[in-house]
Amino acid sequence: MAGPNDAPAIPANGVVREGDGTLSVWTVGHDRHHFIRRTVRIGLQQDGLDQILDGVQPNEPIATSGAILLSNI
After folding, report:
1. Which of 6, 26, 51, 61 is most exposed, with the fewest beta carbons within 10 Å of its own?
2. Residues 60-68: what's their mean pLDDT?
3. What distance in Å separates the CA atoms of residue 44 and residue 15, rounded to the nearest whole number?
4. Residue 8 to residues 13, 24, 42: CA-CA distances in angstroms?
């Protein structure tokens, strides 16, 4: 789990808010053709970014554009 000072942040449109309140993001697979849903815990929200406290690693590629569409497949 990342601390508040070293946690990654991603654009807010990359975080999918599910109907049950779960927050998730889609990571991009190594082959750049597959996506993996990860449940995340967010912290601070500022300037269109969500701080990710748990669920992904720093520098892990995240699908931000169209993330909501991936959740509906």
Report:
1. 6
2. 73
3. 13
4. 15, 14, 10
38: tokens are: 């990860």
Reply yes or no on whether the pLDDT at 1 is more than 70: no
Q: Which residue, chain included where needed, has tokens 């992904």?
A: 56
- What is the per-residue pLDDT across 6-52, written as a single tens digit (0 to 9) for each? 788 999 988 988 889 999 998 888 887 788 899 999 999 999 999 99
CA-CA-CA-CA torsion sign (1, 3, 57, 71):
positive
Number of H helices, E strands in the chain: 1, 7
Determine contact, residues 21/12, Cβ cutoff 8 Å: no
